[in-house]
Write a structure and sequence with these properties.
single chain; mainly beta; three-stranded antiparallel β-sheet; 12 strands; 42% strand; NADH-dep_flavin_reductase; plasmid
């Protein structure tokens, strides 16, 4: 059997090679937020994953150099706010580095559920999590959070990130069973 047809070039994995290859993976866009030292912190992220439904648990991966990472460690809580297409501007705002982090929260309507972490009221869904475990890996810290409260909208539209830009998934190819 000839395995050369359609075979890809494999090389050592540099940081840039890794980043360019990961651009091929579509990810949902979320705002990871917390409240520490009497101020809100937040950032745009795609590194969010469900861990367990029993108990409801999520994980998020945050760059250890970012202020949101240390604020989540200090507060012991975070929210995951899943964004829809109407939140592109907000996603861009939270992805940039403003002079004052609180400026990020001047856009949108915010509330709190159980942990005190900021919850975006018009998100597709929001998860209010209590940190139950932290693990450092490379440049990032993985936070595992038990979901203490959830809110969700009736809207099923999602915002994704692919190939360095925001995308709106347009078609569900197969309905869930």
């Amino acid at each position: 059997m000839d395995h050369s047809a359609g075979q890809q070039d494999f090389a050592e994995c540099s940081r840039d090679d890794f980043r360019m290859a990961m651009r091929k993976l579509i990810g949902g866009v979320a705002l990871i937020c917390t409240h520490s030292d009497n101020r809100p912190y937040g950032m745009t992220a795609t590194a969010v994953c469900s861990v367990s439904a029993d108990p409801p648990t999520l994980l998020v991966c945050l760059n250890r150099k970012g202020s949101t990472c240390s604020a989540v460690s200090e507060s012991g809580a975070f929210s995951v706010n899943l964004l829809g297409p109407e939140n592109v501007e907000l996603a861009s705002t939270f992805a940039s580095a403003p002079a004052d982090l609180q400026d990020r929260f001047s856009v949108g309507e915010w509330t709190m559920l159980k942990t005190g972490a900021p919850i975006l009221q018009n998100s597709s869904a929001s998860f209010d999590c209590e940190v139950v475990e932290e693990l450092d890996s490379g440049s990032h810290r993985i936070f595992i959070g038990q979901v203490r409260a959830v809110s969700r909208s009736q809207d099923d539209k999602a915002l994704g990130y692919f190939a360095g830009g925001f995308v709106i998934p347009a078609q569900l190819l197969q309905a869930p069973a």
